[in-house]
TrEMBL record:
Residues 313-324, 375-388 have a biased composition (Pro residues). It holds the Pfam family ABC_tran. This is ABC transporter domain-containing protein. Belongs to the ABC transporter superfamily. Residues 2-227 form the ABC transporter domain. GO terms for molecular function: ATP binding; ATP hydrolysis activity. Keywords: ATP-binding, Nucleotide-binding, Transport. Residues 301-399 are annotated as: Disordered. The keyword Ligase does not apply. InterPro entries: AAA+_ATPase, ABC_transporter-like_ATP-bd, P-loop_NTPase. Residues 340-362 have a biased composition (Low complexity).
Length: 399
């Protein structure tokens, strides 16, 4: 079990973690959530003894990490997948870690098979992709067969098959009675993996409860009701409001109902002789509940106009382009570019061009700014006069 009591960490005037207390119990996957800069990585570093807390303490199994006998055999961690010497192969990297902790060499091959890197075990890690690096980091965490495991963004860079594998791995480790502590920004994945949540914001504890309780506490459940026409929608709204419900119209014509259970809504619709086309419950997702909980603790937000500060000022006297009607709407397509000759859909005809050696053009193309301008053709070209007979006989007369 991991236990933090009054954990505080300051870096000069910056307080990364403030009076943080929580417990990570064995047998369950505990998710560690929080916005960027909330202190998650700092907390995990203090758990592993990489950073000293300014005040408070954190223990693993009742002892600080640095006082655990042969700590790698008891605690496995993945904090940085890039913390590998690029010139070493995957097997050599794990073998060095095993020899430092007294772990038999056969265990190296076992974990390589577990993470699926047995075919690239002899290749240098500097050529690994991000997902392969994550698998190597997970293999290093599993090397000592520890009872406590910490993972920081373990699915970063993995493909869908790898994400599913990590999810099942976490659950199987927790089912064996191990302590599994996972930090991630993927809410959809945490909803499928974690059973308990610890949420922090700006270094302080925001929530320490199960996933189900967290969603229930930070979301408002409601029912969606839909009727065939506006007249029946008004009748249903009046009946539900009279019964104590709160009804809000939605953009698609449905009604959002709160304060009444679904069976009561159905009974009221039947009594008011209203036919329902839809009556469905809605429960917020973990992402929606998380956003509602942490919206006041986010330090880094995007600007309203993403192009602000990037657009160059227009030259003096130049008017801004007029907006195109309908642009940006679904089904809008840009019109074809205008063509010469007043025929917008006419295909341009290729101009005949003399060719030189190897098929290269004998003269610069008309689009070349450095070429001499071509003589303009008359609008109605006249036929050239036939040569006079005297001109054809001049060479013979000269002889």
């Amino acid at each position: 079990m991991i236990e933090a009591v009054g954990l505080t960490k300051r870096y000069g005037a910056k307080t990364a973690v403030h009076n943080l207390s929580f417990q990570v119990r064995p047998g369950t996957v505990t998710g560690f959530l929080g916005p960027n800069g909330s202190g998650k990585s700092t907390t995990m570093r203090m758990i592993l003894g990489l950073d000293n807390p300014t005040s408070g303490h954190v223990t693993i199994g009742g002892h600080p990490y640095r006082k655990l006998p042969n700590a790698p055999r008891q605690v496995g961690a993945l904090l940085d997948a890039k913390a590998v010497h690029g010139g070493r192969s995957a097997r050599s990297h794990l073998l060095c870690l095993a020899q430092l902790s007294g772990i038999p060499e056969r265990r190296v091959d076992e974990v390589l098979g577990v993470v699926g890197l047995q075919d690239v075990a002899r290749k240098r890690s500097k050529g690994f992709s991000l997902g392969m690096g994550q698998r190597l980091g997970i293999a290093a965490a599993l090397l000592g067969d520890p009872q406590v495991l910490l993972f920081d963004e373990p699915v970063n860079g993995l493909d869908p098959e790898g994400i599913l594998w990590v999810r099942n791995l976490m659950k199987s480790l927790a089912a064996e009675g191990r302590t599994v502590f996972v930090s991630s920004h993927l809410m959809s994945e945490m909803a499928l993996t974690a059973e308990h949540l610890i949420v922090i914001g700006r270094g302080q504890l925001l929530a320490d409860m199960s996933v189900r309780d967290f969603i229930a506490a930070n979301s408002a459940d409601f029912a969606r009701a839909r009727t065939p026409d506006a007249e029946q929608r008004e009748k249903l709204t009046a009946a539900l409001t009279e019964a104590g419900g709160q009804v809000l119209p939605e953009p698609d014509g449905a009604l959002r109902v709160t304060g009444l259970p679904l069976p009561r809504i159905s009974d009221l619709a039947h009594e008011a002789d209203v036919r329902l086309w839809e009556l469905s419950p809605h429960q917020a997702s973990l992402e929606e509940a998380y956003m509602r909980m942490t919206q006041a603790a986010v330090d880094y937000r995007s600007t309203t106009d993403q192009r602000e500060g990037l657009m160059q000022p227009l030259p003096p006297g130049v008017q801004p382009p007029m907006p195109v009607p309908g642009q940006g709407q679904p089904g809008w397509y840009a019109p074809p570019p205008p063509q010469q000759g007043g025929q917008p859909f006419a295909m341009p005809q290729p101009m005949p061009q003399a060719t030189g050696p190897y098929g290269a053009p004998a003269a610069p193309s008309p689009g070349n700014p450095y070429a001499a301008p071509a003589p303009a053709e008359p609008a109605t070209p006249a036929p050239a006069p036939a040569p006079a007979p005297a001109d054809l006989t001049k060479p013979e007369d000269a002889r």
